[in-house]
Amino acid sequence: MDHRRAALLLAVAGLLFLPGVGYVSALDSFGEPEPHRSSASYGAAQIDVDNDTVMAERYRSAVTFYAPRLQYRHVEDEFAARNETREVLLRAMETGRATTTDEAVRADLRSIQRNYSFVTEEYDGVYRLSLARDGERTVVTATPANRSAVADAARGEVVVEYESLSPGERATVEKVLNASRSGDAYGYRPWSNESMPHPPVVVEKGDTHYAVETVAHVDDFDFPDGLLLGVVASGLGVVLLVAALVVALVGEYRSRRGGDAA
Questions:
Q1: DSSP letter at 34?
Q2: Mean pLDDT of the chain
């Protein structure tokens, strides 16, 4: 076979195999997405929900808004006037009372009050927030809350009955419980198509309460199943292109040498 034709065939084959990884990615984007494991691993431990100290210390952040969060840029889509709202909250916690006529601040405060039972500047001091209208002004009152109040709010927020969970959530909780009983330090990583009650949550099953929480994080790049095959195909494409170049160069060299000899 003529060396030019052989080199051309090798080059065409190499170009076809070279985008092997791209073929795999394209095929992976069609149809139903493949289920994958969560990067978070969950465990469950028995907890005494009647213990105010345990509940307040463990779940205070679930029911308390941390006012210094407002200074961070990543929350600017969540709040309309984050700097002004922070100033009003800090003043109310420092003096017990603050006022504002800013509608954006008022909206932010209502959102915080709706989503959290308490506010804090430092977790050593937790305050219950109340809002009242006085003409054009909104009066913001911050009342110190004790450990018992925080624990009661936590119980109302994070404790759920096992029977109230969906069948899928109960099945996943059982897998988390089994992993914890087996002593698996890495817990259970749910599949993406499994239902999971979102932590922090305490599941009440019979007379026992289980704190379901994240125990580990695993780096998972979720590569397509056929990625290795795609890498092999791309590697073969490179080899074929190199072979095409070698065949062309050797063929030209021999052809010229034969011509010179004649």
A1: P
A2: 86
